[in-house]
């Protein structure tokens, strides 16, 4: 109603000029109260007979937007416009994506639960006859199982860390940035903002890396994940098997999860093998246990082989101080792209991920160095000064940081099967930068 009043004024303002302000006022009042102007006129003539007046001007047709307020009949149900439908569709898709995101986790959980049952019940309690062997098998199994579950849990439920508030655009900067139409001007604004921040890496064209979705200057090694819809500090990749982004906050947990998964599979395969042979030579005849033990060995070996590749690859990445994304597209420094830009030597690289206290290395507790916003570089003294970068260098460079990970097929082809075990459902190309 309040919105309708100013809209009707221009059409109705002509009424006073006819010499009948009352009609105009009544017309406005009746429109506002929801009754039709003609009805208002009729009722006024009934209540107070008065000298003949000039015939009232017919009320001008109301704008369609106003008509719905004045009509006696209830307005028709609102039809969602194309924009509304799009929004609802994208919301629906996001919802489905969120639900289906848990499917791989559910599959892994079911496999793990089955392996626990098969090992503890079918192997140790039903098949193994020696009590000492039983106790030894079960004790070691449960220690490894505990660490395996603990690291898996931490990989799934440790939230990816977003950049600090100081990397976000202030309102004033945002306004300046949006009002500036020239790309050079926008780059200049970002460069001014970045002067106060410990940001040394650049986009492929030499500009400060900026996320227009999160409206922030990306810290070094930070990338935007379109699945998580946010910028993630030291993003490595989005892993469907943990339904989480692997980045600064949980990279150590992810590595430990791979390590304990390998150990879990290796331990199962090693202890089951003896009984697998026994069933094969028909020394043991329990049919149900035979089925579980056979599959236990098969599944353990299958996962062991695939995880070995993935773990080996990540060990190499840690030794080089590279994230998976950086292995495919080198980070760009003011001096140019450099794959080894963050490589400080194996010892320091390891300490960056696992921390300085070696006793914490194998526990899924936070011990990584730094806060994920700043990483020492090999050539920090040069990289520290953004003015060292010349514009020409960036123009010639030709690399575009925005293309990082978009060419999913290219990355996909380079991934070997072990990596694909973890990343096989469009992982890397969810990275927008
Ligand atoms: Zn972002
Ligand atoms: Zn993600």
TrEMBL record:
Coiled coil: none annotated. It is an enzyme of class 2 (transferase). The chain crosses the membrane at residues 99-119, 135-153, 253-277, 289-313. This is Palmitoyltransferase. Residues 208-328 form the Palmitoyltransferase DHHC domain. Residues 28-41 have a biased composition (Polar residues). It catalyses: L-cysteinyl-[protein] + hexadecanoyl-CoA = S-hexadecanoyl-L-cysteinyl-[protein] + CoA. InterPro entries: Palmitoyltrfase_DHHC (IPR001594), PFA4/ZDH16/20/ERF2-like (IPR039859). The DHHC domain is required for palmitoyltransferase activity. It is a multi-pass membrane protein. GO terms for molecular function: protein-cysteine S-palmitoyltransferase activity. The lineage of its organism: Eukaryota, Metazoa, Chordata, Craniata, Vertebrata.
């Amino acid at each position: 109603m309040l919105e309708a009043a100013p809209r009707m004024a221009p059409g109705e303002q002509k009424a006073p000029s006819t010499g009948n302000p009352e009609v105009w006022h009544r017309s406005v009042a009746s429109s506002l109260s929801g009754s039709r102007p003609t009805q208002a006129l009729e009722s006024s003539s009934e209540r107070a007979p008065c000298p003949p007046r000039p015939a009232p001007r017919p009320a001008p047709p109301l704008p369609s937007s106003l008509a719905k307020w004045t009509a006696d009949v209830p307005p028709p149900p609102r039809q969602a416009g194309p924009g509304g439908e799009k929004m609802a569709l994208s919301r629906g898709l996001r919802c489905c994506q969120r639900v289906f995101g848990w499917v791989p986790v559910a599959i892994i959980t079911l496999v793990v639960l089955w392996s626990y049952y098969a090992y503890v019940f079918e192997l140790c309690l039903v098949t193994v006859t020696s009590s000492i062997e039983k106790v030894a098998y079960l004790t070691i199994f449960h220690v490894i199982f505990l660490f395996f579950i603990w690291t898996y849990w931490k990989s799934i439920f440790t939230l990816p860390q977003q950049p600090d508030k100081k990397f976000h655009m202030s309102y004033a900067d945002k306004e300046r940035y949006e009002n500036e139409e020239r790309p050079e001007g926008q780059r200049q604004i970002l460069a001014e903002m970045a002067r106060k921040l410990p940001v040394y890496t650049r986009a492929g064209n030499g500009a400060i890396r900026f996320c227009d979705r999160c409206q922030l200057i990306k810290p070094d090694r930070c990338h935007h994940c379109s699945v998580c819809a946010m910028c993630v500090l030291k993003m490595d990749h989005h892993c469907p098997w943990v339904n989480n982004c692997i980045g600064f906050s949980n990279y150590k947990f992810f590595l430990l999860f791979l390590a304990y998964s390998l150990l879990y599979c290796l331990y199962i395969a090693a202890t089951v093998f003896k009984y697998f042979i026994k069933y094969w030579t028909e020394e043991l005849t329990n049919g149900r246990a035979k089925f579980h033990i056979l599959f236990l060995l098969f599944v353990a070996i299958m996962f062991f082989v695939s995880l070995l590749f993935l773990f080996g690859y990540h060990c190499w990445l840690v030794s080089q101080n590279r994230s998976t994304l950086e292995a495919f597209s080198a980070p760009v420094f003011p001096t140019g792209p450099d794959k080894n830009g963050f490589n400080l030597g194996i010892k320091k690289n390891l300490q960056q991920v696992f921390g300085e206290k070696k006793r914490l290395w194998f526990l899924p507790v936070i011990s990584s160095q730094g806060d994920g916003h700043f990483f020492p570089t090999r050539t920090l003294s040069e990289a520290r000064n953004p003015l060292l970068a010349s514009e020409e260098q960036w123009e010639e460079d030709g690399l575009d940081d925005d293309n990082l990970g978009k060419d999913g097929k290219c990355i996909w082809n380079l991934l070997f099967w072990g990596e694909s075990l973890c990343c096989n459902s469009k992982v890397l190309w969810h990275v927008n930068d």
